[in-house]
Design brief:
Distance between the termini: 37 Å
Order of helices and strands: EHEEHEEEHEHEEHEEHHEEHHH
Largest sheet: 4 strands, mixed
Length: about 375
């Protein structure tokens, strides 16, 4: 059977991703304050922060809201501006200016009704989380999404290393891959939209092909059987971009953040949430489990679904799917998962070290597939093999 699967990615300068990075930069700052206060003996483990920050970006304005309970102090406005500037939005000419934009902060403490369930080690909310892994790429991620992320990383690299080209921060990519009998065989379509300066409008398609698309696809030669269709800046012009062209909001790119549509999504976003929130921590654990199963050779393609109830420690449901690629019985895989991994919020945090992780990097190019993230390090492969 022949199918075409499509995934997209967006650059760090996309308005939604700017919002994600601000939320996670603030989370990192509160977690860093925790580490400082702990080292000085001023708080206990039980007094660590609870953070759920949302950011919205509009023309000339950043709005930060949410719930934060913390013993430390963070210069919220400074971090917002530093994050925006570091992405490349340093003037109204490129669509946003971190130095002069308005910053509105509306943050309140976490509800005590939620806190009482989390304090005892329970989940901070109900919900469903999915983890997925496949052997079709070295990073155990879907091919179309891996290529889309690679195109956006290249966009950022070219913009920073070759400023004379006139590339600007906002960009999007989309890749369609042909599958035969469940395996990727060919790249069918590549779409890239790259924000640019006014004066290079006529050259933009050639510049994007030469400096972004060709260097990336050179690494995927085995999938270039036939000539892919290219759509480069298909409207013909992309000068007005970033928050000047589109409102940005935390958590609006959840499919880009996860598996590019190859696996289901429970609906919960990640950025701005501390590790007591199972929307984030359990999704990371589910990916960790799925990747471990594939690395252990128990299945070529694997998905695990977890479900939690607020205030309850262990998941109320653990379901597995192997898509017919299992090497041992599916029930045995599920049994080993429950035996090897503690999937309570406390167990997840301890196993993956989520209180010590840095989260801003997860807010660009996806939360999965980067070997530097702790949930991507498979330390229990032999246990899952039963050896």
């Amino acid at each position: 059977m022949i199918q075409i699967h499509t995934s997209e990615s967006v650059s760090e300068g996309h308005p939604d991703k700017v919002a994600d990075q601000i939320s996670d930069a603030l989370l990192d700052a509160f977690l860093e304050e925790d580490r400082r206060l702990l080292s000085e003996g001023k708080i206990t483990e039980a007094q660590r922060c609870r953070v759920a920050i949302e950011t919205m970006l509009a023309h000339g304005c950043a709005i930060v809201s949410g719930e934060v309970s913390s013993s430390g102090y963070v210069e919220v406005q400074n971090i917002v501006r530093e994050t925006i500037n570091s992405i490349g939005y340093t003037s109204t000419e490129v669509g946003f200016d971190g130095g002069s934009c308005g910053v509105l902060v509306a943050i309140q403490p976490q509800s005590p009704d939620i806190a009482q369930g989390v304090d005892t080690g329970g989940a901070g909310d109900q919900g469903m989380m999915f983890g997925y892994a496949t052997d079709e790429t070295p990073e155990r991620m879907p091919l179309a999404l891996s290529i889309s992320h690679a195109l956006m990383r290249e966009s950022v690299f070219v913009r920073n290393s070759k400023p004379d080209l006139g590339f600007r921060p906002d960009a999007k990519a989309q890749v369609s891959v042909v599958y035969e009998d469940g395996r990727p065989v060919r790249i069918d379509t590549v779409v890239v939209s790259q924000q640019h300066s006014e004066e290079i409008t006529d050259q933009m398609q050639d510049l994007v092909r030469e400096h972004i698309i060709e260097p990336v696809l050179a690494k995927y030669q085995q999938y270039l059987d036939g000539k892919p269709t290219y759509h480069i800046n298909p409207t013909g012009r992309f000068v007005r971009g970033g928050p000047a062209g589109d409102t940005g909001l935390t958590g609006r790119k959840i499919i880009v953040d996860t598996y590019g549509g190859m696996a289901p999504h429970g609906g919960g976003a990640f950025s701005g949430k501390d590790p007591t929130k199972v929307d984030r921590s359990a999704a990371y654990m589910a990916r960790h489990v799925a990747k471990t199963v594939v690395e252990a050779g128990l299945a070529d393609r694997f998905q695990v679904a977890l479900a939690y109830a607020i205030g309850v420690a262990q998941p109320v449901a653990v379901n597995v799917e192997t898509f017919g690629t299992e090497k041992i019985d599916r029930e045995e895989i599920a049994k080993r998962i429950k035996s090897v991994f503690d999937m309570s919020p406390r167990g997840i945090n301890q196993h993956l070290g989520l209180r010590d992780a840095r989260y801003r990097d997860t807010a660009r190019n996806g939360h999965f597939g980067n070997p530097n993230f702790p949930w991507e390090k498979c330390t229990k492969v032999e246990e899952m093999r039963g050896s």
